[in-house]
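for the record, two folds in this file. i put them one after another cuz i was lazy. first one right below, seq on top, structure tokens after. the second one comes after a little note so u can tell where it starts
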Amino acid sequence: MIRQDFIPDRFSVLSGSMLKLIAVISMIIDHVGCHLVDHNIILLQAGGYKLPLYRLMRDLGRFAFPIFCFLLIEGFLHTRNKIRYGASLAILAVISEIPYDLEHNGTLYYPEQNVFFTLLLGYLGLCAIERFREKPLRVFLSLLCLAVVSYFLDADYSIQGFAFIILLYALREQKILRVFTAVLLNNFRFVALAFLPISLYNGKRGFIRGAFLKYLFYLIYPVHIFIIYLIKLNYIGFE
């Protein structure tokens, strides 16, 4: 299969660290918009057209998940210890579930699970593909089981998020074709635009080096949603 490139290599200027930074900023914008912004605030109005601040922030937040999935695949391809990588995702998913539940309804129970469960299931799917590479039936059954778990677990993005990760991995050399995986997720336009920074990736790690900075970036997810919970608890309330 021919590798597809639509952006010259000289424009590949974004390291993995810069992609993480873009994804984190997008994620925070999305979550602040979702939980803290009044839906009635109009940012722009022209004639009969209105642009609510809430809608703009949610749309900008669509960049985060595709970039995180892309970085997950890069991590899978380059990690020296796949078990430790998977264990880190599992631990973060469990840790994040408490602030995630609190953020959504102010209690320690919420029927949906946080996005790190989606990333973990996707990662396990990639491991199954690699482990059973010469046994397509086992690959199919493994992915089917993980898809069923994803559906019933009801993690963020659900089974569509799991399928997105698997297809993004399968099409990792097809830069044009992989853009169409965005149809699996909500808001195709903005999800597809997330592939622009992804296409500028230069394959380098960037400024996030060492265990401290790596895990600090991991902790941004549970910490920022816990802060959002505290703001809702003290100033906004839960519906």
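(here's the note) second protein begins now
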Amino acid sequence: MLIAEDEFAMRTVLQDLLEGQGYRVIVAADGEEVVARVGREKPDLILLDVMMPKLDGFRACAALRRAGERAPVLMLTARGGVGDRVEGLDAGADDYLPKPFSKAELLARVRALLRRGERRAARALDVLRVGGVEVDFVEMKARRGRRALHFAPKEFAMLRLLAEADGGVVTREQFLDAVWGYGSFPTTRTVDNHIGKLRSKLEPDPRAPRHVLTVFGAGYRLEGGG
């Protein structure tokens, strides 16, 4: 995994802690180094401080996601306000841990994100075709025929989760965990609203969906994707 932290003392503490748990650790001291090292070394988890020189954590995370990097990102920062957490998650982070934090909580978040990353890799999907729409998850682009469609990052993430469930049900809680992460405070209604936006782009008639289907009392599933 990669630890991105510009403060030497904190970087050393984190490296010692994680190496003591048996993880192989590489480090970076600024945002530009993060992007370069992730591109070269493909870590399975990125611990990303927000306040870094050259490129802050938000911009570094967004750059990694634009480049197609899928490794889970855990943002670490002393800026613990709701707006900062939302900005980090919107940039593509998977989770957000305000400083100061306990070692036990950090390790628990690391284990959870590594498990999530393993599931994501096992079910990796690059391109989805559904309802006449082609969605490229690597390039983060979608089109219907020659017409480009705009999907927000969370809509891409929700659609990928549905596709990788291979026809199975994705619960609202699973959406909240995988797409919004622990550091945000959305409700199940937030999931429903985003599903409505997905249907408006995928379905010929969003009021009578054929592809993004409601499973009452459970969640949603994708029909006809391939």
